[in-house]
Amino acid sequence: MKAPVTDPSGHHRRAGRTLAGVVVLALAGAAVITVSAPFAGPGRRPAPGAPATATGPVPSPGAPGIGDPLMPLAGNGGYTVRRYTLDFDWRAPRTPFEAGATVSATATQALSRFDLDFAGNTLHRVTVDGAPAAAERHGDELVVTPAKPIPRGRAFTVRVAYTADPTQARHRDDAIQDYGWVPTSDGTVVCAQPDGARMIFPANDHPSLRAPITFRVTTPPGVSAVANGRLVGTERHPDGRTRWTYDSEQPIAAQLVQLAIGKFTFVDSEGPHGLPVRDVVPDGLVADTEEYRSLTPDHLAWLEQRLGPYPFRRYGVLVGDTDLPVALETQSLAVVPRDDLLGDRVDAERDLVHELTHHWTGDSVAIRRWSDLWLSEGHARYYERLYSDEHGGAALESVMRAAYEQHDQWRHDEGAPAEPTDATLFKVMRYDGSALVLFALREKVGEETFGRIERAWVTAYRGRAAGTRDFIALASRVAGEDLGPFLRPWLYGAHTPPMPGHPDWQVDPVED
Q1: Confidence grade of residue 3 (pLDDT, cut at 50, 70, 90)
Q2: Any idea of the CA torsion for 91, 126, 251, 184, to the nearest 10 degrees?
Q3: Which of 330, 304, 311, 309 is nearest to 319 (CA)?
Q4: What is the DSSP letter of 256?
Q5: Closest CA to 322 of 311, 331, 309, 335
Q6: Strands 465-466, 366-367: parallel, antiparallel or unpaired by DSSP?
Q7: Which residues form the signal peptide (predicted)?
Q8: Which helix (H) or strand (E) segment is 178 a member of?
Q9: What pLDDT score does 56 carry?
C-alpha cells in the first residue's frame, strides 16, 4: 500500500495510499437458530492436552484469534481454510445484494465450535456440511456451533448466506484512511487492508493465513466484474445478466482480495517471458492512462533483475475511478487511483513500482505478524525510491538522509520500525523509516551482498509467511556474519543508530 510521503524539498504528495446475540434466520423464514454454547471471549484458547475419550480428544472451541499482539482477534484457531468460494449477485451501486460464501476447511483440533471474521452485513443462514448450524455475532466474530462436533483432521464445509452491504467501510487515522467497500459511480472497488475483508465475506482475516478463492459474480447488462487471478469464464443469463467466474490461482490473504465492478475495458498486453498482463480500466479513462500503464513490462523487468522472477501467473493495474486515498497491492491486480495516472510521470512510476514490488514482498512473502509490516512496506518504499533515483526522481541518498534526520522523531511518535501499535501501523515509519533500515543494511554489507540477501529472502520464503527474526537470520547467513547486533537496534531501539559510511549524518532533536 502506498502512503503519503514528503520529499526532501518539502513538497507533500497525495497518498499513493458489537453487536452481540444476533440470531440467524433461515431463508425460508420458518426456523430461528440460536446458540446453545457460551461464547469463547477474546483471548480464550482451547485447553492444552484436552482429555481423550474412546473416540478421540474432547471437542473444544477454536480460538477466536491467532494471537497477533496488534490485532488479537484477527484470524481464527482450530482449522485451516482450503478454499473460499464467493457468490455475489450484484445489482446496482450502493445497493445491498444477496451473497454467499462457502468455506472449505480442515479441523486442526476436535471442534465444538469455531469463529469466522465477519463484520456487518445481514446474516441469513449458516450450515456446516449441509446441516443448519447455530451462529452468533460478537463484534467482528461470527461464532458457529455445528450440529455435531467436528473431529480433528476432518474436512468440513461451511456455507454462509447473507445480504452484502456495498456501502460498508471503516476509517483509520493513517495512510489507509477509508477502507472496505469503496463505491464508484457505476460499481465498486475493494480496499481490504488491513482488516476490511471481513466486511466483504466471512474469512480467516490475517495476512499470514492464505487460501485460494473462487469468485462468482453476477452483474447487470453492460457492467463487468473483475477479481484476483484468472477469468475462468462468463455465463450469460436469459435476463441479460452475466456471471463472471475468477480463480485466484494461488493462495491469497484476505487483505489482498480484490473485487471490482463497473463499466470496464480490459486491456491485454505481455510482460517479460510472456507473462499475461491485463489492465482493467474504466471506459472513459483508457486513453488518458495508457502512457503510464504501458510501462508495466519495463517495471517488471527492472524488479526481476533485483528480486528474481515475478512470483505470480499474471499481473495488471486496476484503475480506481474514485477518490481513493491509496494505491493498494491487491494480489495480481494492483489498484492505482486515476489521479495518480493522470499527473507527473515520476510520481506515477513511484506508485506503480511500489505496488508491483509488494507482489514479491508482502504478497508472495507474507508477513507473519502485523509488527512485521516494515518488511512489506519498507521494501516497497526502498525499491520505489531506488527506481525513481534511476529514472529522473530524487536521489536515493538525499531521500535517505532526509529520513535519517527525522528518524528519532518518528520513533518517538510512531514506534521503532518493528514496534508499531495498531494505531501507528501505516504511519511514515513503516514506509520511509523502514526503507532507511534496508538502506543502512546495504551500507553495512555492501551492494553486492545486499542484493544476494534480497534475492534469497524472496526465494526462500516464496509463498510463505515470514517475520523479522527470519529476515535477520537469513541476512546473517547470506552475509556470513551475525547481523542481529546491527539490525536489532535499527528495528527496535529507542534511538537511531549511526549510519554506516556516513558519519556526518545527524538526527534532528525530538520534539514532544
Answers
A1: low
A2: 20
A3: 330
A4: G
A5: 335
A6: parallel
A7: none
A8: strand 178-183
A9: 75
CA 384/CA 439 separation, integer angstroms:
13
Q: Which domains does the chain have, with CATH numbers?
A: 366-492 (1.10.390.10)
Helix (H, G, I), strand (E, B) or coil at 125: strand
- Tell me which amino acid residue 425 is: L
Q: Grid coordinates 474432547 are at which residue?
A: 58
Task: Report the share of the chain in percent with pLDDT over 70.
Answer: 89
Distances from the Cα of 107 to the Cα of 70, 79, 160, 289, 467, angstroms: 25, 4, 18, 47, 25
CA-to-CA dists, residue 299 to 68, 258, 304, angstroms: 34, 22, 9
* 461 burial via Cβ count (<10 Å: 0-12, 13-18, 19+): buried
In angstroms, the CA 220 to CA 217 distance is 10
| 220 DSSP 8-state letter | -
For 230-264, write each residue's pLDDT tens digit.
Answer: 999 999 999 999 999 999 999 999 999 999 999 99
C-alpha cell at 456: 534469497
Please check whether residue 485 is in contact with residue 479, taking contact to mean a CB–CB distance below 8 angstroms: no
DSSP state of 438: H
Return d(Cα 41, Cα 141) in angstroms, integer: 10
Instruction: Please say whether the beta carbons of 178 and 432 come within 8 A.
Output: no
Q: Tell me the backbone φ, ψ of residue 230, rounded to 5 degrees.
A: -100, 135
Q: pLDDT for 59-116, tens place per residue? A: 999 999 999 999 999 999 999 999 999 999 999 999 999 999 999 999 999 999 999 9
Mean pLDDT of 342-350: 96
For residues 248 and 212, is the Cβ–Cβ distance under 8 A?
yes
| Total length of the chain | 512
Strands 141-145 and 111-117: antiparallel
CA of residue 415 relative to chain centroid, distance: 22
Residue 284 backbone dihedrals phi, psi, to 5 degrees:
-80, 0
- Least Cα distance to 349 among 392, 315, 311 occurs for 392
The rounded Cα 90 to chain-centroid distance in angstroms is 23
Q: Rounded to 10 degrees, what is the CA torsion of 380, 208, 337, 261?
A: 150
The grid cell for 333 is 491486480
Residue 437: C-alpha distances to residues 14, 433, 457, 491 (Å): 24, 7, 15, 7
Cis check: omega of the bond before 96, within 30 degrees of 0: no
* Helix/strand/coil percent split, the chain, to 5: 30, 30, 45
- Contact present, 458 and 360 (Cβ < 8 Å): yes
- CA quadruple 436, 442, 443, 447: dihedral, nearest 10: -140
Cis? peptide before 42, omega within 30° of 0: no
**Per-residue pLDDT band at 2 (split at 50, 70, 90):** low
- Residue at grid coordinates 518539502: 10
